[in-house]
Specification:
The chain has 339 residues and is α/β, with parallel strands linked by helices. The protein contains 11 helices and 13 strands. Bound molecules: uridine-diphosphate-N-acetylglucosamine (UD1).
Length: 339
């Protein structure tokens, strides 16, 4: 049984990935310091998978604590590294905290892979590295644009750190550039747990529909798109989780040309904000209250993935529809306490 460490394993994408690993017979160790989630997620994972993974409450940016954790698991086949701060606006307010946390944890994990190069690594990157791409759909070889935020910079520089480390120390890694992961597990046992007012579109929609927030503000009605609202590539979190399994299997089987490969994780289809609202209304049978609001600074007009490299290299494509995403996000929302 191959052992895999999932950092941020109680978070949104980490928890869904843990479920898929467990159901394929991997031994799973979760590391999560509950910075942006809670321990009850472990029960959700165990309920779906029928197995309870080991969980270590460790701050991976703490070098001593990280080293102690890894020393107990020197037989790791792989590390899937989700643990990071991820709020764009907060990163502008607290850049040093973002750099310390996101780079500290990555460097501590790479010290381990440098010493144990057989241990493969998967890094959570983001389509934010492309900024407003010149060509759509976006291919992986599109230029990386200057980061709009410290958060975005941690993804760009994180990829560079991986490449330099792999070249010098002989380990292998895959960086996965997520587009817009949404939805929840269809069992509604795990999902997204945004802290405070959700900044992202779909959690705001579900909280608004649940009566926890006012009407959705749609940021901008004059973008050069088919209905004036921004276009994004929304992808079901279970599809994103499955891509990590394929990426891990690619690394473990020794396939791949470069020490660090990069793949987009998107559906290839762009949806406008109004199309997302329409999908939510179709999936739930209700009407969503919304109103126009000014453009949000930093938003790009349109971003959606070219999916060919992931299909060819990982043997993976997203399969779940936007309507399924919305139905699952709503089912999950209805299990959450009304507060
Ligand atoms: C945002 C981040 C991105 C990060 C990603 C994952 C910004 C500018 N980008 O992506 O760097 O990788 O989250 O966390 O913050 N929208 C509304 N009303 C809302 C919320 C969103 O109209 O209340 C619109 C936005 O203008 C955008 C779309 O919905 O057009 C998606 O927004 P969001 O879910 O925040 O994702 P991104 O901006 O794509």
């Amino acid at each position: 049984m191959k052992k895999v460490l999932v950092t941020g394993g109680l978070g949104f994408i980490g928890s869904h990935t843990a479920v898929e690993l467990l159901s394929r017979g991997y031994e799973v160790v979760l590391a999560d310091n509950l910075a942006n989630t809670n321990a009850a997620v472990l029960d959700g994972i165990a309920a779906i998978a029928g197995k309870r993974p080991t969980w270590a409450n460790v701050d991976l940016a703490d070098q001593v604590a990280c080293r102690a954790l890894l020393e107990g698991h020197s037989d790791l086949a792989g590390i899937i590294h989700f643990a990071a701060y991820k709020a764009v606006g907060e990163s502008v307010q607290k850049p040093l905290a973002y750099y310390r946390n996101n780079f500290g944890s990555l460097l501590n994990l790479l010290d381990f892979t440098a010493a144990h190069p057989a241990c493969r690594l998967i890094f959570s990157s983001s389509c934010t590295v492309y900024g407003q791409a010149d060509t759509l759909p976006i291919r992986e070889d599109a230029p990386v644009k200057p980061a709009e935020s410290p958060y975005g910079n941690t993804k760009q520089v994180g990829e560079e750190i991986l490449r330099d480390g792999a070249r010098a120390h002989g380990f292998r890694a895959i960086a996965l550039r997520y587009f817009n992961p949404i939805g929840a597990h269809p069992s509604a046992r795990i999902g997204e747990l945004p802290l405070g007012v959700p900044q992202n579109l779909v959690p705001f929609i579900t909280q608004s529909a649940a009566g926890l927030r006012g009407p959705l503000k749609v940021f901008g009605n004059d973008y050069p798109t088919r209905d004036g609202t921004c276009i994004r590539d929304y992808i079901h979190v279970v599809d994103v989780a499955l891509a990590h399994i394929y990426a891990l299997e690619r690394l473990l089987s020794g396939k791949g040309s470069d020490p660090v490969e990069v793949f987009n994780l998107g559906t290839g289809t762009g949806s406008t904000v109004l199309e997302v609202i329409a999908a939510f209304e179709r999936a739930t049978g209700g009407k969503l209250q919304w109103e126009w609001a000014p453009r949000r600074p930093g938003d790009v007009v349109a971003a959606y993935a070219n999916t060919e490299k992931a299909a060819a290299g990982l043997g993976w494509r997203a399969e779940r529809t936007l309507d399924q995403c919305m139905a699952d996000a709503w089912r999950w929302q209805r299990t959450l306490p009304a507060k």
